[in-house]
Structures are given as structure tokens and as C-alpha cells.
């Protein structure tokens, strides 16, 4: 019952959502890579807002992005996801948000994926 309550509250996304226990997968199929990247970035923004509203923390270390394509030539193409060094709509970068919230495991993960540690927020900090 608790699981049904948990997944019922998830926000609407363009992608299909598949949930099991505390894991969530979003899947999207689009005719071009650009359209797929735009859709996934939009959905990640929606899910981040949901997590923030409920004070839930994404486990960066357990998060994975994967893309599949039927063409062998495209098999190793990397997804272009939103730059975590860019300020959000409130002018705060993910790194600043993690530091201020004391989420040092998230800070470590951001540094590991080479987020710009010198990126200023919209106020120049």
C-alpha cells in the first residue's frame, strides 16, 4: 500500500516512469538524439523539483544514464544532459545547493563528474 501511495504522487513527465521499491527509471523514445536529450532534461528538471519539494535526496552514486540505439555506429554516443554547473531558475548551482544543505556525498559526486567548482551563481558567488 505504501508503495502505491509513493508512486501515485510522482509528477507527470514526457517519459514513461517505471518504479520498483525506491528505484525509478524513466524511458523515452524520440526520432532524434536532440529531441530525446531535450525530453530527458525536461523530465529531470520536473523530478528534481519534486524531490526538492518533498525534501528527498537523489542518490547520485546510484544514478545511471544509459542510451540504446539500433545503429552500431551510434552505440557509443554520449547523452548531452544539462550542465550541473549552470544556475537553476532560482540562480543557484547544484553544487551551491548541495554545499548549503550539507549533502557532502552529492558534492563529492559532482566533483567526480567534473562539475565546475568555480561556477558562480546568478549573484556572482
Strand-helix topology:
Elements: H1 2-8, E1 16-20, E2 23-27, H2 33-53, H3 94-100, H4 104-112
Antiparallel strand pairs: 1-2
Helix pairs in contact: 3-4
Mean pLDDT: 75
What is the count of structural domains? 2
- The total of helices stands at 4
N-C termini distance? 45 Å
Beta-strand content estimate: 5-15%
How many E-type strands?
A: 2
Give the overall shape, derived from the CA principal axes.
globular
Low-confidence stretches: none
GO biological process, one term: apoptotic process
InterPro entries: Ankyrin_rpt, Ankyrin_rpt-contain_sf, ASPP1/2
Keywords: ANK repeat, Apoptosis, Nucleus, Repeat
GO molecular function: p53 binding
What are the key terms here?
single chain; 125 residues; mainly alpha; 2 domains; two-stranded antiparallel ribbon; Reverse transcriptase domain-containing protein; repeat; Ankyrin_rpt-contain_sf
Note down, in words, how this protein is organized.
Keywords: ANK repeat, Apoptosis, Nucleus, Repeat. The chain is mostly helical and 125 residues long. It has two domains: 81 residues, no CATH class; 43 residues, no CATH class. Helix content is 35%, strand content 8%. It contains four helices and two strands. A two-stranded antiparallel ribbon has the order 1-2. A hairpin with a 2-residue loop joins strand 1 and strand 2. Helix 3 packs antiparallel against helix 4. The protein is globular and about 45 Å long. The N and C termini lie far apart (45 Å).
